[in-house]
Amino acid sequence: MARHRAVGMAGRTRSTGKVKAAQLWGKNKDDLKKQLDELKQELVQLRTQKIAGGAQSKLNKIHDVRKSIARVLTIINANQRAQLRLFYKGKKYTPLDLRPKQTRAIRRRLSPEEAKIVSAKQQKRQRHFPQRNYAIKV
What tens digit of pLDDT does each residue of 25-44 get? Predict the structure, then answer.
């Protein structure tokens, strides 16, 4: 569902403030900030035109610019979170929002290390009474 693309001469399309997320992933932080500022500036201009009684096409463009701003912010946020994950990798504690999302029951479960621990009494029992192996004669 292509939304509000202004078609110019010879069937060419003009940019309407839309941004593709695939193009944004390759950009660095400064470029993303710069693009975000440009989009916000464009949104301000469109809103002033709306108040002044602009054309319907300008009003429709506000939607696209807002969504583009959201895309840029999403990628900036994802990049920051990826950097934080790298920073906290191997550390004893990580922030709650960077930990894997799990159910409450799984979070309260014993860790694999805690589950492997065997008490001294149980070790003695296992040593003195090992599991018996039975062989069946044919």
Answer: 999 999 999 999 999 999 99
- Give 7's strand partners: 13
Let me know: does 43 contact 83? Beta carbons within 8 Å. Answer: no
Which two structure tokens, joined as six digits, stand for 112?
């694999």
| C-alpha to C-alpha distance for 75 and 4, rounded to whole angstroms | 24
Domains with residue ranges and CATH for the chain:
21-92 (1.10.287.310)
User: What are φ and ψ of residue 32, in 5° steps?
Assistant: -65, -45
Our measurement of the distance from residue 44's CA atom to the centroid of its chain's CA atoms, rounded to an integer in Å, reads 27
**pTM of this prediction?**
0.64
φ/ψ (deg, to 5) at 55: -70, 160
13 forms beta bridges with 7
Contact (CB, 8 A) for 24 and 75: yes
